[in-house]
Design goal:
Layout (H helix, E strand, L loop, with lengths): L2 H12 L10 E5 L1 H9 L2 H17 L2 E2 L5 E2 L11 E9 L5 E9 L3 H5 L4 E8 L6 E6 L1 H19 L6 E5 L3 H13 L5 E5 L5 H12 L4 E4 L3 H7 L2 E4 L18 E3 L8 H6 L2 E4 L2 H4 L5 H7 L10 E2 H5 L13 E4 L4 H18 L3 E4 L3
Parallel strand pairs: 1-7, 8-9, 8-11, 9-10, 11-12, 12-15, 13-14, 13-15
Antiparallel strand pairs: 1-16, 2-4, 3-4, 4-5, 5-6, 6-7
The chain binds nicotinamide-adenine-dinucleotide.
Length: about 350
């Protein structure tokens, strides 16, 4: 390990002064670097997520509300934006950072590119100097999958074996592969995408690794949702289309794409859980609309996810409860994952060191 890397590791571990002022450097990690460090599979992310959610429940974080940069104006497509997500997380190795994540709804069709792209910057907790820059798309999709994987442990029926997924893009792929890695009990997937061929393409990817899983390409969102003991939304929908009536008794909905579930379903569900109330109650998202209409409030919310992780509240209590999780996505989740990846990179000597000045 280089002297600089050692200094940075000391800082991350013990909060000591670390950045070499004569020649500050940072570590750049590409997507391939991150994958080589274990960032291509779910374990690193679920561990980091449990840690981040516990820190959230304990208040050991700073996380300003994220601004949405909409250069196309407020009337543009919901997925046409760049979001800045800064956070500081505590724990044994405090660190600050930001995810700067762009999204363009037509990237796939118009440019052959993934919808989302971005960078994560990590900053030394003492000097605030940047110490790492890394590709954000992989981390972002895998940490979002880890939110569902962790939440399932607390909120799904313990013996669940069917999963429905609406929207079959990159986020759906990470969600389903992570769930299959973490829960070998999953036997059946029901997939639906409004774009012809998308569900079939995702099925092929999943079959390469999980050949025994039964995969049904559904003819409608309703058909898929009605089958799901766990239901995951991964669309870019801007209007709800999942009414309460489609949900099975005992269903757990991980509403990753946020806008998919009808207002009435939130009001009829046994429990509504969010990751962070302040982050969730904004931007005219469905929950925020309900609050603005005076039909939902902090008091009606069952819990923030971290409260379940630290055991402050029980998760699912009965097999027939219908539970909706609305995870807006928190910067602390990205920074907690990036912190682990950075520490691994220093240990393994992976990445490209870049001078800040020279
Ligand atoms: N909550 C979080 O923390 C978090 C984090 C990352 C991404 N996301 C969200 O995940 C969603 C999916 O992202 P992605 O990168 O996979 O996008 P993507 O564009 O790659 O895939 C979206 C898929 O959904 C399909 N789709 C769109 N509207 C649909 C509808 N009404 N019914 C059925 N299918 C529909 C599209 O055809 C496409 O195949 C986005 O909304 C994104 O904002 C949430």
């Amino acid at each position: 390990m280089t002297k600089q890397a050692e200094l940075q590791l000391v800082s991350i571990g013990a909060g000591q002064r670390s950045v070499d002022q004569a020649a500050p450097e940072l570590l750049y990690l590409s997507r391939d670097d991150i994958a080589r460090l274990g960032g291509g599979s779910s374990r690193l992310y679920t561990e980091a997520l449990e840690e981040a959610l516990a820190l959230h429940a304990q208040g050991a974080f700073v996380q300003p509300l994220k601004p949405y940069l909409r250069s196309g104006g407020a009337d543009g497509h919901i997925a046409d934006r760049i979001i800045a997500m800064p956070a500081h997380i505590g724990g044994e190795a405090p660190v600050s950072g930001i995810k700067w994540i762009g999204s363009k709804h037509d990237n796939q069709q118009a440019r052959g590119l993934e919808r989302a792209s971005g960078l994560i910057v990590l900053n030394d907790a003492d000097s605030h100097y940047p110490i790492a820059v890394m590709e954000a798309g992989l981390i972002s999709s895998m940490r979002t999958a880890a939110v569902t994987a962790v939440a399932v442990r607390y909120l799904a029926k313990p013996a669940f074996h069917t999963v429905a997924c609406i929207g079959c893009g990159l986020i759906a792929r990470a969600q389903l592969l992570s769930l299959l890695e973490q829960y070998p009990q999953v036997r059946e997937l029901h997939l639906y995408d409004q774009q012809p061929g998308a569900a079939e393409r995702l099925s092929d990817v999943i079959r390469e690794r999980f050949a025994d899983t039964v995969i049904v390409v559904a003819r409608s969102a309703e058909r898929a949702v009605r089958e799901g003991e766990v239901v995951i939304t991964c669309t870019v929908a801007d209007k709800p289309y999942i009414p309460f009536e489609w949900l099975r008794r005992g269903a757990f909905v991980s509403n990753i794409s946020i806008m998919d579930v009808h207002k009435e379903a939130y009001l009829q569900a046994d429990k509504v859980v969010v990751d962070d109330w302040e982050q969730s109650n904004r931007e005219k998202k469905v929950l925020n609309q309900l609050v603005l209409e005076g039909r939902f409030s902090r008091e009606l919310l069952y819990a923030e996810l971290g409260e379940l992780v630290i055991g402050a509240k029980p998760g699912r209590e009965k097999d027939d409860e219908i539970i909706i999780l609305n995870p807006m996505g928190m910067a602390i989740e990205d920074i907690a994952c990036a912190r682990r990846i950075y520490a691994e990179a220093l240990k393994e000597g992976i990445g490209t060191r870049l001078p800040l000045y020279g």
